[in-house]
Amino acid sequence: MMKICCIGAGYVGGPTMAVIALKCPNIEVTVVDISSQRINAWNSEHLPIYEPGLDEVVKKCRGKNLFFSNDVEKHVSEADIVFVSVNTPTKTHGLGAGKAADLTYWESAARMIADVSKSDKIVVEKSTVPVKTAEAIERILTHNSKGINFTILSNPEFLAEGTAIQDLYNPDRVLIGGRETPEGQKAIKTLKDVYANWVPVERIICTNLWSAELSKLAANAFLAQRISSVNAMSALCEATGADVSQVSHSIGTDSRIGPKFLSASVGFGGSCFQKDILNLVYICECNGLPEVANYWKQVIKVNDYQKTRFVNRVVSSMFNTVSAKKIAVLGFAFKKDTGDTRETPAIDVCKGLLGDRARLCIYDPQVTEDQITKDLSMRKFDKDHPAHLQPPSPTSIKQVSVVWDAYEAVKDAHGVCILTEWDEFRKLDYKKVYDSMQKPAFLFDGRNVVDVGMLRKIGFIVYSIGKPLDPWLKDMPAVVA
Ligand code: NAI
């Protein structure tokens, strides 16, 4: 029986391996991690991550051909294929700080693979890594190999959190990069055969190593660029009276542009977009391409601008101060259907409001108080390191409370900010919300989920990104110096 081991039981390693186990009953799949807390959770009734459909897949396979273990070395040494899906956060110090990928976790995983292996292995890069990482990893593996052959493949993951299981069942494509040598091609075929158990072969794209590595960075850069493009348009819509939803719909019907990923919002988040673009920028700079680097940097700048703009809209419309005012924050995760808060725009928006001394009452159906407190007290970039390396639960922040009900959050609030597009925020009883708030009641929709006309009829003063402005907001500056 073929054995697969995946190092890193996170948002990628867990769901990806669960689906491989489900679709390939003849393969034994073990996911290992240095965090015993994470492994214990994978072996319990409460999985460490929330992802629609994941519980069912894990329940079907766990204990049969899917295992979660802390015994990293044993399972790596027994595996035929080792996937590496560890964190690759942005470096916080030293050369390339704030831009380059921190490959500490990758390197230590590679050294461990070399140390414990007793048989030939295919080592698969699942983490998103800078171009040419495979070469560095190959060197680590071969220099410590004791005669064992390691063949390295790049197999970047394109799943999106919130729809990970569907994306894995039915991927647009699977990308496998390998060396153009007989060993490289043989390894590509072995991995292709695994995916071919459920993915149509024409959707399995095989390339060289560097194309595969760069394609992942390029895909994330293009996706984030689309969001920044529509967000830049949203600012212009507000200034001109155009409606960003109408503009998005109109341009999205052009088959060359397409309708997806054109929703204006308070900004993109998630662990990948910013980190991968920064990484791309760094690679461009290292290769003497400052113009290309600056082009991509702008995608992040517009994202930061959008968050600042949102905070400034809130503060300026509420008489230029939110000091001591209760603001209800609905949604903290970086998007709906996930509990992941890494790089969520809610962090910057909340910090901006706290900077103006607001009192925040936060509700998100999937994010705990502990996580929110950590996020609001941690430094930028620290959040993408493994949980066991993060500071223990911080003490609560005086101006922030976290509740488990939207109506509780909005009670006596002066303003409501919607920061995640959870479906339940579309269906709230807004008359009830209005009645329980201070007046004038402000609502700032960072995700365009509410019916602006209906809310204005109820009596709210509404700001919705990229929509024609409420008369109240018309003369207020969008960006305060
Ligand atoms: P994660 O933080 O959820 O999981 C990584 C896991 O690796 C952690 O549980 C950590 O404890 C473990 N780990 C770190 N070093 C280890 C070592 N030496 N030995 C054993 N375990 C170790 O991260 P996530 O989100 O799963 O991302 C992993 C990689 O996949 C990153 O490179 C990311 O850029 C990429 N990726 C993430 C996507 C996402 O939606 N989250 C989508 C596509 C790619």
Automatic annotation (TrEMBL):
Keyword field contains Oxidoreductase: yes
Enzyme class per UniProt: oxidoreductase
Reactions that this protein is recorded to catalyse: UDP-alpha-D-glucose + 2 NAD(+) + H2O = UDP-alpha-D-glucuronate + 2 NADH + 3 H(+)
EC id: 1.1.1.22
Active-site residues (renumbered): C272
Keywords: NAD, Oxidoreductase
Family annotation (InterPro entries): 6-PGluconate_DH-like_C_sf, NAD(P)-bd_dom_sf, UDP-Glc/GDP-Man, UDP-Glc/GDP-Man_DH_C, UDP-Glc/GDP-Man_DH_C_sf, UDP-Glc/GDP-Man_DH_dimer, UDP-Glc/GDP-Man_DH_N, UDPglc_DH_euk
Domain UDP-glucose/GDP-mannose dehydrogenase C-terminal: 328-452
The UniProt record lists the keyword NAD: yes
Binding site residues for NAD(+): 8-13, 33, 38, 86-90, 127-128, 161, 272-275, 342
Pfam families assigned to the protein according to its UniProt record, in alphabetical order: UDPG_MGDP_dh (PF00984), UDPG_MGDP_dh_C (PF03720), UDPG_MGDP_dh_N (PF03721)
An individual GO BP term: UDP-glucuronate biosynthetic process
GO molecular function, one term: NAD binding
Pathway(s): Nucleotide-sugar biosynthesis; UDP-alpha-D-glucuronate biosynthesis; UDP-alpha-D-glucuronate from UDP-alpha-D-glucose: step 1/1
GO CC annotations on file: nucleus
Family of this protein: Belongs to the UDP-glucose/GDP-mannose dehydrogenase family.
Protein name: UDP-glucose 6-dehydrogenase
